[in-house]
Amino acid sequence: MDAYRRYYVPCHAGWVGPTVLLCIYGFCSMMRPIEPFVTVFLTGTYKNLTTEQVTSQVIPVWTYSRAVLLVPVLLITDFLRYKPVIVLQSLTYVTAECCML
Known about the structure:
- This protein is an all-alpha fold.
- The protein is 74% helix and 0% strand.
- The chain has two domains: 1-31; 34-101, no CATH class.
- The chain crosses the membrane at residues 7-27, 61-80.
């Protein structure tokens, strides 16, 4: 039992706690219930695009541009140690949501 206590690291003192918090934050930030309604919004009178334009031009560019941006964001996140990037991401989400109203 003594050997176990000597090597035991509580979750908050090791890497498990921050990793779990980052995973929960990542899951919550990627929850976008509005995405199924994007096509309806873009084909409406506000943007006036056809369904074919949205499915063949807008969504592929949107998806691949987000995938390309993951590499520099990952490198910047590792370099800055997560906290400033998470705060910046939170602020941009709030700003984007406020602008959509």
